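Submission sheet (multi-component)
Chains listed below:
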Amino acid sequence: MPLEVLVVEDSSGDIRLTREAFRDVNPFIHLEVAHDGVEAMAFLRRQGAYAGAARPDLILLDLNLPKMDGRQVLAMIKEDEALKTIPTVILTSSEAEADVLRSYQLQANCYLSKPMHFEAFHGLVKSINDFWLTKVKLPQQDDGDEPEPGAHAGHEQGPKKSRGTKGEQ
Amino acid sequence: MTIEVLLVEDNPGDVRLTQEAFRDANPSVHLHVASDGVEAMAFLKREGSHTADPRPDLILLDLNLPKMDGRQVLAHIKADEKMKTIPTVILTTSDAESDIAKCYGLQANCYLTKPVQLPAFEALVRSINDFWLTKARLPQSQ
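Outcome: structure written.
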């Protein structure tokens, strides 16, 4: 089952590097790109051209974006009952402590600074894959959240995995 | 510089394995242990015997805990303006979808299940160290 990753990034160079790095580390990832904050929210809410969009398993969110800033996108995701469970990783060139703190206050799942050099960037994408898409348990697509208005069950990607029942109670 | 990690875990065997795995993975980690949810909250609020304890850089939180459940601890942490910025990683034996969804709904930073076998558990602790304590930017203690 492919993993759906939404990259919200305006730099075409960074998009290309991210795409290539994911292709190298995990061919099962299906990468979607939103180039600004408005497009990211339309994608997540399946509006307009995105009516058939998959719900992402993970969001990689840049902070400095045209139209709607990444901080605003993050706030909107984490205020939305249906979207807040999607792990949202900040991936930005900003090293500012204020941005780190603000992102965690807005309940970013994690904050990563983009390294300048290609090799290090590639290594970081590998780390994201090894940790978030391999080790971490992600919420299932149909995890019991109330459906979004206008969203149909047919948009859900793939069958729900059957799991053991040894949950803690 | 030491990295302060709070482990909230009631099983002494798991506490010991986690301590040993962190000692191997990263000697800069200073691991504090709270063995139930009430003690975890006292540690985080620096109450009682915890007045001199540091603010953790990272919390590893089990779900099944005596006195106060891990889900309640998580809800308290993420409802508190000061504490909510501390990355809180769920580390539990539960792989129930309902627990995973509930914890992300309560804004856990991530959810990990404890492997049963020791080598896999040690590898997971290394992953936590490599990702959260090496790659991720953590907020500075306020």
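Remark: Helices of chain B lie at 12-25, 37-44, 70-79, 97-105, 118-135.
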